[in-house]
Structures are given as structure tokens and as C-alpha cells.
Design brief:
It holds the Pfam family Glycos_transf_2. The chain folds into 3 domains: 3-229, Spore Coat Polysaccharide Biosynthesis Protein SpsA, Chain A, CATH 3.90.550.10; 236-287; 295-389, Rossmann fold. Strands 1, 2, 3, 4, 5, 6, 7, 8 and 9 form a 9-stranded mixed beta sheet that branches. By secondary structure, the chain is α/β, with parallel strands linked by helices. Helix 10 packs antiparallel against helix 11. The protein has 13 helices and 15 strands. The longest helix has 31 residues, at 257-287. It has helices at residues 13-26, 45-49, 67-77, 96-106, 135-142, 145-148, 183-188, 201-211, 227-230, 236-253, 257-287, 306-318, 356-366; strands at 3-9, 32-38, 57-60, 82-86, 90-92, 110-118, 169-171, 178-182, 215-225, 299-304, 322-327, 345-350, 371-377, 380-383, 387-389.
Length: 392
């Protein structure tokens, strides 16, 4: 067995369905297995997906194991020479796995490989390449110097800002959203550290790989990661869990971290408190109808074959969507300008007409920051913000 793909799911059955559809194309010609660990979802994920993907092995947990424990359980059951840890809210282009495996085959010291993760607006997610969060690297990120100087090899080392995006590069941390691992290296590193429930386990694993003499690489192969677009990174929960995980890592590996734990904890509290206040203000504005984010500001451009467009017209009418409908195919791609108006414009591709690789490439070339990716397949419209099902 060449490849084992492991996905941990929790209440995102429609995003996972789309991910598995892209995987079915990406593993063609590869001796591969796909294992989904369901972390006690409440949305009927397994019952919905199992009949659609009979070749996928579904493992159901009776409670939420967390990311690290769930992945480790599947890793121990897997048989592949390479193991891909993949998030359920991703789309993988048809050639990505073949090219990544070929790179690993030609680089015997490569323990882990990551790729270019695109957000739904076509921008690259900074999390695609990261540095080890030493106390100073973490400090630069927390005080905003990383964001202020995004291309600085010093201040932006957390995102390895000094590296080019268009060529393979050695990096320090591979994101757990797409982490292709050599099985030998993964077991030498001791699998994922279960001290981390969510966030930080990919940093720990990458660090252990480096300590064992393996290399971590970034490859300029595009995938879509909705989380880069949809996660509220200013939310109280995200700030608290993310920076707490960073503190756990520093305390594990840097003796000086005990000296800075108090100011770091104070910074975590301040950031979390600021996020909480922001959420409260946003809630009050929404309650009084003063929020600027209204659903009717969004517009949609559906592009694909006639059957898909007919279904999408009915979906749009039943959900009061402001929409346009464009007939198109890879060989006959029309030129159009979406009308964003005062809100986001979603370009929704028919995934039965377009390859996922084509969609990702077109997204990068066409989008200018005003648009966001959407997909439509078998009655389901998916964007970074919502899922709408056609009941016709």
C-alpha cells in the first residue's frame, strides 16, 4: 500500500463529502486507502456519507477524541508507506498527491511535505509554511510585528515570510491540514502528541521530525482550505486555544519559557478579552439591526452546464439569492465580471463539469479579492460561509 489518507471529521458532512469527491479523483492510479475517523458528530455524518463512499473506511468514536488522538488511532490501523493527514474542509487537485509522492520518492530525507493552501478568496494561507515558535518568534507574532512585516525573515519567521511561494522550500512546520508523512519518519517522531487537543500538534510533530534528522518541505501545489477563510481568528475560543497550545509547546522545549509564561499568559488573556468584547459589540449591533453584514449583500455567479444551472435557478429562487447564470466549460470559459455590490460575490463552479485543479487555477487567476469560491454538486451549494441544499 503506497498511501493512507486519514481525515478526522466533526460535524462537517457536506464539506467532507466534497473533500472525498476530490480525493476520489486525486488517488486514481495510486494504491491508496482512505480512513475517516468521526469524532462523535451530531450531524449524521457517517450515516450520510458511508453509502456514498463504499471504499472509504469509517471509524466512529463514541466521544470526541481530539485531533491528535483520532489521527493516531487511524495511523495505527493504516498500511501505507506514506500517510496523509488531511482536514475535511479541503479540496485537493487531481495531480497534487501524485506530484507530492513523486517529490517524497526523490528526496529520501523528506519526512513531511506541505502544500500551498488557498483560502476561498484565492489568497494563499500564511499557515502553509511556518517556523518553530521559539519564545522570540512567538513574541513577534503576539505583539503584531509578524503581521506588520510579513516578508521579514526575522519578525515574520512564524510564517517563514522570507521564502518564495513558487518553488519547493525547506520549512520548519508543516500544517496538519495537509501533512504528507513518510511512515518511517512518523513513527520515529512518535506520532502526534496527545497533550494537544486542538492546535499545536502539527508544530510538535514537525519539531520532532527535525529533531530526528528529517526534513520538512513546502511544495507549490495548490489545495483549497476553507478554514483559512471561515475560521474566526479573532474569536475568543480560537485565541484562547491557539495561544495556549503555543504556550504548551514553549514550556515543553524551552527552559526560558517558564520565565516568560506569565507575560505570555497575560497576552493570551488580553487577546481573548479583546476578542470577547468584539463579539459582544458585534452581537449588540446585530440585535439592533446595525450590523453591516447582511445576507442579501451577497451575490452568486453559477457557472456550468445547463442541467446544473436549471437546478441552481430553483435553488436561488427558493433561498432568495441574488444570482446570475453562465454556461461554461473548461474548453469554453466565458469572460465575466461578478457584481459584488456591497458584499461578497461567490463564483460557484459545477464540479461535474470542471476538474478541481481547473477550479483552483481559475480561482487564483480570476479572483481579485472581491470574490469567493463556491461549488455545486448533486444539489449542494458550498461556500466558505454556508451550505445550501437543493430539494428539487
Amino acid at each position: 500500500m503506497q498511501l493512507s489518507v486519514i481525515i478526522v471529521n466533526y460535524n462537517v458532512k457536506f464539506y467532507l463529502e466534497q473533500c472525498l469527491c476530490s480525493l476520489c479523483r486525486a488517488v486514481e492510479g495510486i494504491e491508496a486507502e482512505v480512513i475517516v475517523v468521526d469524532n462523535h458528530s451530531k450531524d449524521g455524518s457517517v450515516a450520510y456519507l458511508k453509502p456514498l463512499f463504499p471504499s472509504v473506511r469509517f471509524v466512529q468514536s463514541s466521544h470526541n477524541l481530539g485531533f491528535a488522538r483520532a489521527n493516531n488511532m487511524a495511523v495505527r490501523q493504516s498500511r501505507g508507506d506514506y500517510v496523509l493527514l488531511l482536514n475535511p474542509d479541503t479540496i485537493v487537485g487531481e495531480q497534487v498527491l501524485r506530484e507530492a509522492l513523486a517529490f517524497m520518492g526523490n528526496h529520501s530525507k523528506a519526512g513531511a511535505v506541505g502544500v500551498s493552501m488557498l483560502k476561498a478568496d484565492g489568497k494563499r494561507a500564511m499557515e502553509s509554511r511556518r517556523g518553530i515558535p521559539t519564545p522570540m518568534t512567538a513574541f513577534y507574532k503576539m505583539v503584531g510585528l509578524c503581521k506588520r512585516f510579513p516578508e521579514s525573515s526575522r519578525f515574520a519567521h512564524y510564517y517563514m515570510g522570507g521564502l518564495p511561494w513558487d518553488s519547493p522550500q525547506q520549512i520548519e512546520v508543516v500544517s496538519g491540514a495537509f501533512c504528507l508523512l513518510r511512515r518511517e519518519a512518523l513513527f520515529q517522531a512518535g506520532l502526534l502528541d496527545e497533550d494537544y487537543f486542538m492546535y499545536g500538534e502539527d508544530i510538535e510533530l514537525s519539531y520532532q521530525l527535525l529533531q530526528k534528522g528529517w526534513q520538512n518541505w513546502y511544495l507549490p501545489l495548490d489545495i483549497l482550505h476553507y478554514k483559512g477563510e471561515s475560521t474566526e481568528k479573532s474569536s475568543f475560543r480560537y485565541v484562547h486555544v491557539f495561544y495556549k497550545a503555543m504556550l504548551v509547546f514553549m514550556c515543553k522545549h524551552y527552559t526560558a519559557a517558564s520565565l516568560i509564561s506569565i507575560p505570555v499568559k497575560a497576552a493570551i488573556f488580553f487577546k481573548a478579552f479583546t476578542a470577547l468584547v468584539g463579539q459582544m459589540i458585534s452581537g449588540v449591533l446585530h440585535a439592533f439591526g446595525l450590523s453591516s453584514h447582511k445576507k442579501n449583500e451577497a451575490s452568486y455567479v453559477f457557472i456550468g452546464r445547463k442541467k446544473m444551472l436549471d437546478e441552481c435557478r430553483q435553488l436561488s429562487e427558493s433561498n432568495d439569492l441574488r444570482a446570475r447564470f453562465v454556461v461554461g466549460s473548461p474548453s469554453d470559459m466565458p469572460d465575466f465580471l461578478p457584481d459584488a455590490g456591497g458584499g461578497v460575490a461567490y463564483i460557484v463552479y459545477d464540479t461535474e463539469t470542471f476538474d478541481y485543479a481547473f477550479i483552483l487555477k481559475d480561482m487564483v487567476l480570476r479572483f481579485d479579492g472581491r470574490c469567493s469560491l463556491g461549488t455545486y454538486r448533486h444539489g449542494t451549494l458550498i461556500t466558505a460561509k454556508e451550505v445550501i441544499c437543493y430539494e428539487g
